[in-house]
Amino acid sequence: MLQFNLKAIMSEQKKTITWLSDKTGISRKTLSQMVNNDTKGIQFSTLEAVMSALNVEIDDLIVRAPISAILSVLADDEAGRSKKIPSMLKIDSKESFSTLMGLELIQLSGGDVDVNDFKDCVAFLSVGATVTSRGGLMVWIEPAVISGTNKLLMKDDVDNIINFLSICSDETQSEVASNVISSLLRRVERGGGDISKLSIDDSAAVFWKTSSDDKKILTVVHGDTYLPPEEHVIFKLNPDKEVSIVNGPLDSLKKR
Prior knowledge:
The chain is of the alpha+beta class. The protein has two domains: 2-64, 434 Repressor (Amino-terminal Domain), CATH 1.10.260; 68-252, no CATH class. The chain contains eight helices and 13 strands. It has helices at residues 6-13, 17-24, 28-35, 44-54, 58-61, 76-83, 155-166, 170-190; strands spanning 2-4, 62-64, 68-74, 90-92, 96-109, 121-131, 137-143, 145-146, 151-152, 203-209, 216-222, 236-238, 241-247. The strands form three sheets. Strands 3, 4, 5, 6, 7, 10, 11, 12 and 13 form a nine-stranded mixed beta sheet that branches. The protein has a two-stranded antiparallel sheet with strand order 1-2. The chain has a two-stranded antiparallel ribbon with strand order 8-9. The protein is elongated. It starts with a strand and ends in a 9-residue tail after the last strand.
């Protein structure tokens, strides 16, 4: 999806709609629609006048819209209901815990992505964490395996999401990692576990890996981005789903 970048250009050049209207003879209404990306079509003469007035090229004025994704984190019991997989929450005293977690791609917008290509895309992940001596975490996130079958759960979807994260910005990787950790910790607490050894002043080292183990991502997030866990729900769709909104080059995701 393409959009006008006029608002950013005018802000950078410290120009107003009134100034641009006087300079080009284009109505304020038309320019306002361009600034707000609220126009269905535009005449070439209008584009040429705007580019001339602001001394910019067409690829400065018209840019590709950023692509947004909503990744919903499914609780292990929700994942179990949808795929008949038993709950896998395991708690080993105060030092280690793990669970099955689903990442569901529930909405895409922007770019040239066809939302239908990713409908009902769910990646099932095995998420394990060990508490360090200083109150930090070592976290491993990898494709989940059905016990006794050695069968990866929806391998392509897992690899697609992890490959997507690998080319996202560090900020995006950190946001998703923090949300996964806080979701894990809430499940541990609901399951009767104790997370009191964790320190908000320490950090978590998060390792993501694909099914082929040929790509690993290391993300480091600070404790205040996931502790206390109940304060880091970005948005709740229902009691079992927390949501991260991330931006990145989703065109690179493989089609299912």
